[in-house]
Write a structure and sequence with these properties.
The protein is of the alpha/beta class. It folds into two domains: about 30-180, no CATH class; about 210-635, Metallo-dependent phosphatases (Purple Acid Phosphatase, chain A, domain 2). The chain contains 22 helices and twelve strands. The strands form two sheets. Strands 3-2-1-10-11-12 form a six-stranded mixed β-sheet.
Length: about 650
């Protein structure tokens, strides 16, 4: 998942960063700060190139170059955070680093003619200097990505540092300006019901369907109980990282809060617990990310073994119950990278993953889904008369998918297919659930893609009844507002959280109640266990408990977009209620609760609920105006 520069920062940090997401509220003078930062960045990148070139020529780093590297280094805990959860000062430094490093490496390649091996060696050195991975693992992650990046750079000579960093950050002085990346669109057919008010839906009823939502198991075959959980790398608790001298630094039996993925016994326990607790569930949704965060050493063969074992577990546990899966950004190798279908180089193409998924999913999905799964990892299926699922592969629109830099318009094809499928569903009188790994509209969703999806949603708001996401590991929801009529809430997205504790979370899964006529979500509840308590009793299976029942705990009649929009406005005027939502969102993970969440933190989480597109701050600003006037003491806490 991602952070700063080409082949070193682009590759390394984008691959290893964690998953927590949150919006960062911008100060009132943000525009002036950005203009000032742009000037600083321009001067910094020019000076960095001069100083780094001297270092390459002499082998000695000047005092000034050391200062510049220090400016680029990040806090260690930033590895576990998604880009849009980095505090603004960190984002500013990361953008500066991105522009400086990308400009330098582009010059080395295009002007000085550096070959692949020289670029790789220098990039690995930069990785080591910035303390991102161990020297050996820096070289591994660079070698996994460099050929793709150099192919893109060599074949796109007009690609600049501003555009590359603008795709990744989409904000601040790293803002996207290239019209090639901003101006593509899909064809949206006129029609549909006019949007005249926020969307309502039925209350929960006795005959509602139940759907289990499991996501982000992140099974790590290298996880070892007692091994180092404070290893200093982005993913710990692994056999190659040794046993620490202090037993308290060792990995727990059932997982660990400290940047660790899941042992198999924890994956199996979560799936079996969901099935055991909810035998009356009609369907199961799995929204991606089976593979671990040790991205410097993943392989196609290893990923296949982990995915095969996990899918077989779902078959064994749920039997004939339908499971509807989608791909996560970690499933491919290298991580995050999903090439256009016309890229047929075997070392670049994701075809192996699509063919594998088509074969594995065939036990749950009809033969008619095979073509689009093999084409791009997406599908549609008629679950029952009147009810359809669209399983998207929106990892292609993740801002750390390097192929966006090669051909941003290749994302049109799947979006157009979604539109056309919804058009057919509308004609047939069907309602649709959308499954997608990356939360649609999140800050790491490519902005142009998100804008085009919003056009689709405006057109088919009464056909799409809900969205289901993963990726963030947070138990959260978001509200979609009409692009044309932003005062109206027209859809909702529900995140299943994750059974993995990476990082600081308790494991969970979610259960939805769905009206059997309208297929609206009427209510949902989350189930979790305390990782601290489970690891204190390592020989006993974890005790799963209900974390919340949403309508009950927030006193709602239903969870329609209109109802959730009202709740968000309640949050803005009631910090105690917002804080309760935050506790549920982080699943009462002990490290989160101990650290707390002050006013700025709560406001960031509030704004994330209503942000549908990078840099669209309209809803956030309105809520912030209410929230900041409540109690200044909220913003003066040390925590």
């Amino acid at each position: 998942m991602g952070r700063v520069a080409i082949v070193s920062i682009l590759v390394i940090v984008a691959a290893v960063i964690g998953s927590i997401t949150s919006y960062q509220v911008k100060p009132a003078n943000y525009a002036k700060l950005v203009e000032k930062q742009k000037k600083f960045d321009e001067a910094f990148e020019k000076e960095f190139y001069v100083e780094h070139t001297k270092y390459v020529e002499t082998g000695e780093r000047s005092e000034r170059l050391e200062e510049m590297f220090e400016h680029m280094r990040q806090k260690p805990d930033m590895f576990r955070l998604e880009m849009d959860n980095h505090p603004l000062p960190y984002l500013t430094a990361e953008c500066t680093a991105c522009r400086a490093l990308v400009t330098t490496y582009l010059t080395y390649r295009r002007v000085l003619g550096w070959d692949r091996d020289r670029i790789a060696a220098q990039a690995a050195s930069t990785c080591e200097t910035l303390n991102i991975l161990t020297p050996a693992n820096c070289l591994k992650i660079v070698n996994k990505n460099i050929d793709i990046l150099l192919f893109i750079i060599d074949n796109r000579p007009s690609l600049t540092a501003q555009t590359i960093c603008g795709i990744i950050f989409q904000s601040g002085s790293c803002v996207l300006e290239d019209p090639t990346f901003l101006n593509w669109s899909i064809n949206v057919q006129a029609g549909g019901r006019p949007i005249t008010a926020s969307k309502t839906s039925p209350n929960r009823g006795a005959g509602d369907l139940k759907i289990i939502h499991i996501t982000d198991v992140h099974y790590d075959p290298h996880y070892r109980t007692g091994y180092n959980a404070v290893c200093g790398e982005p993913c710990c608790c692994r056999e190659g990282q040794g046993i620490p001298a202090n037993p308290a630094d060792g990995a727990g039996e059932w997982g660990d809060y400290r940047d660790c993925d899941s042992p198999w016994k924890a994956v199996e326990d979560a799936v079996r617990a969901a099935a055991r607790q909810h035998p009356d569930a009609a369907y199961v949704y799995y929204t991606g990310d089976i593979i671990d965060h040790g991205v410097w050493e993943t392989t196609v063969a290893g990923n296949i073994v982990s995915m095969t074992r996990t899918y077989q577990l779902f078959r064994d546990v749920f039997g004939s119950k339908p499971v509807y899966p989608v791909l996560g950004n970690h499933e491919n190798n290298p991580t995050n990278v999903f090439a256009p279908s016309y890229i047929d180089r075997s070392d670049f193409s994701a075809r192996w993953l699509y063919d594998f998924s088509a074969d594995q999913w065939s036990s749950w999905l009809p033969t008619a889904t095979q073509q689009t799964i093999r084409q791009g990892g997406f599908y549609t299926v008629l679950v029952r008369p009147g009810f359809r699922i669209i399983g998207m592969n929106n990892n292609d629109a993740y801002t750390f998918n390097w192929w966006i830099l090669y051909d941003p318009a290749y994302l049109q094809a799947q979006l157009q297919w979604v539109h056309d499928t919804l058009l057919q569903a509308e004609a047939a009188g069907e309602k649709v659930h959308i499954l997608a790994h990356i939360p649609i509209g999140a800050g790491t969703s490519y902005r142009t893609w998100a804008r085009q999806y919003r056009r689709i949603l405006d057109r088919f708001w009464d056909v799409i009844t809900a969205h289901f996401h993963g990726h963030t590991h947070a138990d959260e929801f978001n509200v979609f507002y009409s692009l044309a009529n932003p005062q109206h809430a027209i859809s909702a997205g529900f995140n299943g959280g994750g059974t993995v504790p990476f990082s600081n979370y308790n494991p969970n899964y979610v259960v939805y109640y769905v009206n059997p006529q309208t297929y609206d979500v009427t209510d949902f509840e989350s189930w979790y266990f305390s990782l601290t308590e489970a690891n204190r009793n390592p020989t006993r299976n974890p005790i799963w408990m209900q974390l919340y029942s949403f309508s009950r705990d927030f006193q709602l009649s239903n969870v329609s977009p209109a109802s959730l929009d009202g709740l968000v406005r309640r949050f803005a005027s009631n910090p105690a209620e917002l804080r309760r939502y935050w506790e549920f969102k982080v699943k009462r993970g002990d490290p989160f609760i101990a650290a707390g969440c002050n006013g700025d933190c709560l406001l960031n989480h509030l704004c994330e609920i209503v942000t549908n597109e990078a840099n669209d701050d309209t809803k956030c600003n309105a809520l912030a105006a209410i929230f900041r006037n409540l109690d200044d003491e909220l913003f003066d806490e040390e925590k």
